[in-house]
Amino acid sequence: MEQCLSTRGKEILIKAVAQAVPTYSMSCFKLPKGLCQHLEGLIQSFWWGSKEGKRKTCWVAWDDLIKPKYMGGLRFKNMEMFNLALLARQAWRVLQDSESLSARVLKAAYFPHCDLLEAELGSSPSKIWQSILEGKEVLSHWLIRRIGDGETTRIWDMNWLPRDGWLRPVPCNRTGRHVWVSHLIDSSTCTWNQQMLTAFLTPPDQDVICNMPLSTQRQSDFGHGIMRRAGLFLMLVHIRERSAAFLESIPGRSDVGREEKEWAQLWQVKVPSKIKIFLWRLA
Fold first, then answer.
1. Structural domain count of the chain
2. Residue 234 above 60 pLDDT?
3. Domain-located, residue 59
4. Dihedral angle over CA of 202, 205, 211, 217, nearest 10
5. Roughly what angle, to the nearest 10 degrees, separates helices 79-96 and 127-139?
6. Domain match, 261 and 200 both
7. Domain check: are 156 and 207 in the same one?
8. In a domain, 48, yes or no
9. Which residues contact residue 12 at a Cβ distance below 8 angstroms, ignoring those fewer than 6 apart?
10. Domain that holds residue 191
11. Banded pLDDT at 263 (limits 50, 70, 90)
């Protein structure tokens, strides 16, 4: 059967079957790294072909195959990082739907006195709990606290600055880990305390904080929300970048923009898909 398939047919089978079938298990459990590598090895063998159990030469590295098509790859999945993305979605569901049965069971068993982002592994964790914590580590880079009275948000250890890049303040006078945002707020006027901001924070951070409105109703700090503009699924992009440092670290690529434009033109050519794959292999 393998010999009867075109390269386009193989690409479809890989994406629709080989990389889709494990999705349910990967949504619940962190698969061993060796298993993920084994799955990727099977996919490579199928893609490049094999004869009598012997693999043919892999002309393109796996780190190149998982690149987006506009960067010269075929958008195959890095199985380990895709696993983390799915687990991050599960962690997000626990945070968002805290009244669901699964969230209540997990909270009662593993973090009865805090929220998920402050939860620890514990003494006898289940495999599911270990896996959710793996997803939580990824998710924590994408969440931000919304400030109300500042009583439950630590200045240095939580994301709470609404800006691109680093979501925590850079301390110029770090006094301790457990310092709360409420120390920066004048409780009598419900405004930021300029004297405290100047004493503890850098000028760029002060500017960001001063532009953050405070509630006059003395509300508690809001739950965690997605900071990035494109929402939760942009995490997948972040994880793909983590999976291989190819986006900006490949040497000798000073003309990245022109090269990406050329790849985009290749995939837009109005010819059968198998011809596009053939041209890709020639390139």
1. 2
2. no
3. yes
4. -90
5. 90
6. no
7. yes
8. yes
9. none
10. 148-220
11. confident
